[in-house]
């Protein structure tokens, strides 16, 4: 194709993915681009991505969004972590809490000192040293960047929010910055002789051309899959869940500042507290649990009145082989699907948008940028995939074939090596700029009973008195700080 400047961008599909993309492009590149978004009110969105991770703050901050306005507009609540229930054995519970646990000494991570203390008879919980955990499980929250009079980090938070309200909020934001929304459904797509996308034709006859197309059409993957035939890497041999049922319930008070992921026979249930309702769902494998049994499991484990009938979502866990193909970038569910166990769905939209901005082509010859974008996307998806597989693999349940399959299945080499490293030495190393921190990996592995055989020898450099004093001081600071925080419910009411 002729190498011309990229001036026209066409986003196909709205929802969270479409409007997050439109908002960031219009904010950062609005004067340089003509941006149009095509969506149809007749086509529903999945709309279950209501829990996030702390990086969402950076996205909102880049857009200049005020937190109080955002929470009010989206019926949002604070999220301090994810509580995993029944993932080891039935009755077990631990939290992947955001933020630090304890503090390192020199070059040695905190958990090595905690493991050394355990070997000497200490019986404290690893989460005694997490401010986020102590605040979450007592329902406390206030903005606290740092624990006063200490070098210790304060609370680290993300959000729960209504994804459809967030999309509407970002639509208003985008349209104020020049994005043109067109209502309609696509009837045909025109391609160039070189195989690029040239234009889309709506069912009402309108035609729109662009230099760069962004596929935010969700699981349909209308452009990247349907028109360009982009291949898909199926990960169901590692993550066999392929179905979800979603249902909202009435809000329960007080609203707790964490997500719950509750393992059941054949799958797991999410519980996401918003101000006006609670989001619930069951993720399961149709191979091990039929739809009727899944519905019964979900409906019998709700903690409030259901506000609608459960809605089924079918999916194939995996990723597009090329998330940028020709002159089309897939963002959101069109780019791949990872179940929402660690609340990564909206983050993957965010990182894709930021990556696109960083790799945005000036000219329509975009091969080198496309290659780099796809390399980074693959790396990110695979790292998150491994972290999600970890939860399933470390289970000790025996009540359904799903759990037994996941416990004994062959793992990706990257994950098998990481588990073995922790098992032998307690060491966890973050790979380059991957999403989840060392502390996140530590919490899941320790929470699901993977105890290292050894810890770092530097942890033995402290005497018994020094080690117990170090831990006791940390525990007291965390406990005292958490106790002084106001209730999360109070924080929400102040923002109204």
TrEMBL record:
Keywords associated with the record: FAD, Flavoprotein, Nucleotide-binding
Gene Ontology MF terms: monooxygenase activity; nucleotide binding
Domain of life: Bacteria
InterPro entries, per database record: FAD/NAD-bd_sf (IPR036188), Flavin-dep_Halogenase_NPB (IPR050816), Flavin_halogenase (IPR006905), Trp_halogen (IPR033856)
Lineage: Bacteria, Pseudomonadati, Pseudomonadota, Gammaproteobacteria, Chromatiales
SUPFAM superfamilies: FAD/NAD(P)-binding domain
Record protein name field: Tryptophan halogenase
Species of origin: Rheinheimera pacifica
Residues the record lists as binding L-tryptophan: 342, 346
Keyword Flavoprotein: yes
Membrane-spanning ranges: none
Active-site residues, as the UniProt record annotates them: 79
């Amino acid at each position: 194709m002729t190498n011309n400047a990229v001036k026209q961008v066409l986003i196909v599909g709205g929802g969270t993915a479409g409007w997050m993309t439109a908002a960031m492009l219009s904010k950062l590149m609005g004067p340089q681009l003509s941006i149009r978004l095509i969506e149809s009110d007749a086509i529903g969105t999945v709309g279950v991505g209501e829990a996030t991770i702390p990086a969402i703050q950076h996205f909102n901050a880049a857009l200049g969004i005020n937190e109080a306005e955002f929470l009010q507009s989206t019926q949002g609540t604070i999220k301090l972590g994810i509580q995993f229930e029944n993932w080891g054995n039935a009755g077990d519970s631990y939290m992947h809490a955001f933020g630090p646990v304890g503090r390192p000494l020199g070059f040695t991570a905190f958990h090595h000192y905690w493991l050394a203390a355990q070997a000497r008879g200490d019986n404290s919980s690893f989460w005694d040293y997490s401010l986020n955990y102590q605040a979450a499980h007592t329902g406390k929250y206030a903005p606290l960047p740092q624990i006063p009079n200490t070098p210790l980090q304060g609370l680290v938070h993300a959000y729960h929010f209504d994804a459809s309200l967030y999309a509407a909020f970002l639509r208003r934001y985008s349209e104020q910055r020049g994005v043109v929304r067109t209502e309609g459904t696509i009837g045909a797509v025109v391609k160039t002789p070189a195989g690029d996308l040239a234009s889309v034709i709506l069912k009402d006859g309108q035609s729109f051309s662009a230099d760069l197309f962004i596929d935010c059409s969700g699981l349909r993957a209308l452009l990247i899959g349907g028109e360009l035939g982009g291949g898909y890497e199926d990960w169901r041999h590692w993550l066999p869940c392929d179905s979800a049922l979603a249902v909202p319930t009435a809000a329960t008070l007080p609203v707790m500042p964490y997500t719950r992921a509750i393992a059941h026979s054949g799958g797991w249930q999410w519980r996401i507290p918003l101000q006006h309702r609670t989001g619930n769902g069951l993720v399961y494998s149709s191979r091990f649990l039929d739809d009727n049994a899944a519905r019964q499991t979900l409906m019998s484990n709700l903690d409030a009145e259901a506000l609608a009938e459960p809605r089924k979502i079918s999916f194939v866990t995996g990723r597009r082989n090329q998330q940028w193909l020709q002159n089309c970038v897939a963002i959101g569910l069109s780019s791949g699907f990872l179940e929402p166990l660690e609340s990564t769905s909206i983050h993957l939209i965010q990182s894709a948008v930021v990556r696109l901005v960083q790799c945005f082509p000036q000219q329509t010859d975009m091969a080198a940028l496309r290659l780099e974008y796809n390399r980074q996307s693959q790396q990110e998806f695979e790292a998150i995939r491994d972290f999600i597989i970890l939860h399933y693999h470390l289970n000790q349940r025996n009540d359904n074939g799903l759990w037994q399959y996941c416990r004994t299945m062959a793992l990706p080499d990257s994950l098998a090596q990481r588990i073995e490293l922790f098992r032998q030495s307690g060491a966890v190393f973050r790979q380059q700029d991957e999403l989840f921190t060392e502390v996140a990996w530590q919490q899941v592995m320790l929470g699901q009973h993977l105890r290292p055989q050894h810890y770092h020898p530097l942890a033995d450099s402290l005497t018994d008195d020094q080690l117990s004093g170090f831990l006791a001081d940390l525990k007291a600071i965390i406990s005292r700080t958490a106790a002084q925080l106001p209730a999360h419910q109070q924080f929400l009411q102040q923002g109204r």
